[in-house]
Amino acid sequence: MRIFTIVIIGALNYVLFDLKHSRRNFSLRSSSTTSSITYEDRKKKIKELQRKYKNRKFKKRKFYVRKDLKLKGSNPKAKRFTNQKALRRMYRNS
Length: 94
Fold this sequence. Notes:
With 94 residues, this protein is mainly α. 61% of the residues lie in helices and 0% in strands. The mean pLDDT is 70.
């Protein structure tokens, strides 16, 4: 009977005190890893957005419109329907 009460008190002690502490530590550990993952993802996205320009007479863009803020339907669905290359050639005279 004495061993049974010691086991019950130990289990209640773990549930009431240690479980809260371990949950708090687990949430702190998981949040730090998610922030590092998002930081790494952000770095990759910035690297993908950097464009290489061969013509150095023209300024490089510093800011790009984020895809989640961009209006839907402002660009054509497929790239082949734009005439951006022709316009660029026309204005740069190359």
